[in-house]
Amino acid sequence: MSKPQEPHRPFFHFGNPFRAISPKGSKLSSRLVFLLATFEDSLAQKLRKLTPKSDHDVFSFLWMGLAMKLLCEIHNDVKTLIGDLELPVSDWGEKWLDEYLDISVKLLDICNDFSSDLSQLNQGHLILRCALHNLASTSSNQFVPARSSLDAWNQHISSRTSRVENRSPIMDHFEELLDLPKVKNSPKGKVLMQVMYGVKVATLFICSVFAYAFSGSSKRLLSINVPDTYRWAQAFIELQKNVNMGIKINHSSGRFTALRDLNAVDERVKKLHSMIQENIDGGMKVEECQNLIVDLRSEAEKLTQGVDHLTKQVDEFFYIVLSGRDALLSNLRSSETVFDQGMEALSTRQP
After folding, report:
1. Which spans of this chain does the record mark as coiled coil (predicted)?
2. Prediction pTM value
């Protein structure tokens, strides 16, 4: 994944000549009220859908995949709404543009960090496959290399490092971006900023939960207070409360990672490792060991499928952010070209 370079953006010292005259006052038309309400009701529905039904759902790859999928849908909804607002890029204020570009580049960085963490988990699966291959044989000679592979798994998982944790300033700065630029005398601008607030809250919350899940550090968790004036506020409050409850239970359990699918595999690896050692010492129950091997194979497959699915969702979100950023930069280039051509025509016009 790579990020595009930003072009030089035109700066109009005497005001943007292409800026449309916005209606004075902050009263919204019935059309703008409808667009805003439709977006906020859709956001509330998505947040309710993400609210875990039980504590065991939080930090499963199934739940995390749903979270990333909904985040993709939310950002696609924003693209649609911006088009419905008919608010050209040339009407965006300098602060809006700077903030959007700043947020988008941070989102791309975070996606890369998540992908790196998921890649480490995939590497661990290759080690497990080697162990399970050795254990498929009925020969007791295969138990020694199988134990060696399980040792390698334990070492790989315990030594993995999260890029999210190492790049914490990105998440720290993200929280500051909840403050929105001031909008005066632009009803469409006010709608856009209110919509962007909801998008940023949902994005920041999901990214912080993912950062905690991968790094295990509570420093990455955020408590976001949302005013109840937003139509989606209650749904978000309920979601945050349920996820925080799952986090507390995870802390009290003493598990080595918040990722539930990874914990399920790790618990079985440890049991199997202990049984193999018993076999080498001459005291293992063969049937019990075979049952555990089957169980480990099943959990390992679930982990792999979950990692693969979540990786695809993270990649999709990356390209949604990237395409939105590219579209904005392309429009800025077009505005700059039109402005330069207009200034050139003025300079060559004869009196």
Report:
1. 286-313
2. 0.81
